[in-house]
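Data follows
____________
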Amino acid sequence: MTKREMILEIYDREAMGEVSAAEIRIIQSGLIEALGTGGMMSPAEITRVLLDEDLPVRLGEVFALPAPLDAYEELFSGRATPTTLAEAEETIAFLDRQRCRFIEADDPIGQRFARQTGQRARQNALALAATSPRGDRAPSRDDAREIAQWFLIWLETPEVFPAWLELRKRALKMAPNAT
């Protein structure tokens, strides 16, 4: 059964009349329940299918709904800009918790967002290392390079990262100029 057919089947099964935001959410839930996260469709996509069948849709309500990826974007918003080692450690811990949660939920979109946020954080740290001015108030270039390395290790081997980080922090304490 195609997504289009499933949308129409859910519409019929639920005896929907005029489709509003509530009915769109019911259809979205039905698609995800049947197909997993691969069944996710935006309100606009669902509306297109319904309108193609000349079914009544309250367009104003439907288009006011958030897009399916908005929740992911909100969850990871502002997480790609750590400028201190403490912020980097906190960010990686957050990303890893989310990654594990999304693996358990079999949510590849969430997993992708966690990984992409880590990649952006690494790129931001590399850019900061390259452009950071010298001075007391600016994050140090060495710290920015260290942050980039932490994200690289997490991206490549997230399961090993916590143990690696503990060893790395011990090494940094013993040799403060090791970064």
